[in-house]
């Protein structure tokens, strides 16, 4: 997608148009980018407030829920959440019966720190008839600890609304580092990662597109998508296969082989 | 390298030959593969015992130390360690003054579990005049928690003696997953990763070569090396740059941005 900053109504309309197209092609679980209802490059808390919505009383989320109900599908999408005057960079999981779960971005990138609070819900997973689903947002993916948190709680599919920005040093012909992180995280955890990025340049900030659907072995099943144009990717997800795949041989399962007691998490004093 | 199973003396001789060549090209820190003195595919504990050496009384390590002293260089290499009849898949760091540090592989792969004990020294780092150095071995790299453990303790350079085996599902033209893991781990921790793999097929087990030297941004500085032939890679390491690189912007440093209290390490009961 290419959301426009502050234009919630037209962004939601465009999301539904893309959603209808995906459903027409058989999609059952649809993933949209980070802050896709609002755009990303806020310049004041007032701008955030004007776009942010309360999960339990949101016109945007009601519209999305109606879409899921009408089409018997599930979706994940990023939106700015207003929780009693505190703002979160959130992602919602909706199914045919309504809202299933909410996630608040745990690791804030750059100026987000001026407008949003870091997430306060840790790394929840949600059991659905499509499999067990976790959500994380953009910079969360730079923390393998976060992906592991979803995995050890049983996530089969990690949905990642994101707004990836360029990373210095990428040589021509190289894959974007963000997509390499998806590969590594999917592989070492044996789960699917569905990362939906935005495209376009907003108030001078470039976004890189290149959405990917990564299989539980770490190889991309679809994408990278276009770096500049809106594009829908499709892939078949088999949650049971992800779960069964982790027994790599008689001795090795990457979740069971962790030696948690040996890891150092804090810089020694 | 292509070590031969059980042929310690000729493996050590070949290592020194390669070492002399690297030194002649200006190398100061040399990294060799996992179990490079002994070969890898053991078929009994007796075979391990015949090759394993005590760190403090090892002909192999004395030979390597003499090489480092004579050439004023540092080296890391994998060897089977005999610690009072207990065997570890170990890696040693040696400098011009002698042995600096030892590491015992923490996550054992497949049949290694029959012959070796898991490491009991956690994730030590060693301060040297070349920078702060950590060592890990092969399957350890599948645990981002391990790389993070070295990083938070101040590692600038992570040396990885390894014996990578093929991973199913790799499409033609794709980089090996093991090298993708190096990229992701280097990038999210802002450190160098120097992974020295073996080549060849031993008792039916294929090894994939493709050694890489990965910079602190996550892009490869040298390699992947040949998948089938012995090959020496060279790159310039700037430990201070790795340390300074982590302040990505006013708000973000991937080591400081971790939210350790929010991560789940154990599968909920």
UniProtKB/TrEMBL annotation, chains A, B:
InterPro entries: Aliph_Amidase/BUP (IPR050345), C-N_Hydrolase (IPR003010), C-N_Hydrolase_sf (IPR036526). Residues 1-239 form the CN hydrolase domain. GO terms for molecular function: hydrolase activity, acting on carbon-nitrogen (but not peptide) bonds, in linear amides. Keywords: Hydrolase. PANTHER family: BETA-UREIDOPROPIONASE, NITRILASE C965.09-RELATED. This is Hydratase. It comes from Arthrobacter echini.
